[in-house]
């Protein structure tokens, strides 16, 4: 990723299938997201939510709001889909919805900043005569 295009956003079910929304509607993808940034949304102690996650996500993805003709590149897109799902879960737990700015600041920026640092370092090392050698097991 070079930072010059928009990123695509999706939400995974418990089996790793990514639900994502674009101009063709909701897609369920079991592959093609291998180079994604994974951002945990649920803490491990929220087991009751995790028990229903897949059915909640499937029901949400079938709603009329996510039909193809409703897609709008700037205002009703993959980011809107992810944020709306997160806010639906928050609402079910009696919590206030997040704005786009709050969602971005809390969930996306910390992880994308870290990934950007890693990618920058990787690109710099790739253009130099540097070899990365794994440490022997005793040295780790």
Describe this structure in words.
- With about 140 residues, this protein is mostly helical.
- It has a domain at about 10-95.
- The protein is about 40% helix and about 10% strand.
- It has helices at about 45-60, 80-90, 100-125; strands at about 10, 20, 25-30.
- A hairpin with a 5-residue loop joins strand 1 and strand 2.
- It starts with 9 loop residues before the first strand and ends in a 14-residue tail after the last helix.
- The model has no long low-confidence stretch (mean pLDDT about 85).
For this entry, give a set of tags.
140 residues, 3 strands, mainly alpha, 9% strand
Please state how the strands of the largest beta sheet are arranged side by side.
1-2-3
Number of helices: 3
Give the helix/strand class: mainly alpha
Shape: globular
| Secondary-structure element order, N to C | EEEHHH
Care to count the β-strands? 3
Question: Which bin fits the share of residues in helices?
Answer: 40-55%
β-strand amount: 5-15%
Largest sheet: 3 strands, antiparallel
The averaged pLDDT comes out at 87
Distance between the termini: 31 Å
From the alpha-carbon coordinates, what is the Rg to the nearest angstrom? 18 Å
* Sequence stretches where pLDDT stays below 50 over 5 or more residues: none
């Amino acid at each position: 990723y070079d930072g010059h295009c928009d990123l695509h956003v999706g939400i995974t079910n418990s089996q790793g299938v990514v639900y994502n929304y674009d101009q063709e509607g909701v897609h369920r993808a079991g592959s093609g997201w291998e180079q994604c940034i994974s951002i945990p949304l649920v803490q491990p102690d929220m087991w009751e939510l995790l028990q229903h996650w897949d059915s909640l996500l499937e029901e949400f993805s079938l709603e009329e709001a996510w039909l193809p003709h409703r897609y709008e590149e700037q205002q009703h897109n993959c980011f809107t889909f992810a944020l709306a799902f997160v806010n639906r879960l928050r609402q079910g737990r009696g919590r206030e919805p997040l704005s786009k700015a709050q969602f971005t600041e809390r969930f996306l920026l910390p992880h994308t900043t870290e990934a950007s640092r890693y990618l920058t370092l990787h690109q710099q090392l790739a253009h130099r005569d540097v070899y990365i050698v794994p440490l022997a097991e005793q040295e780790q």
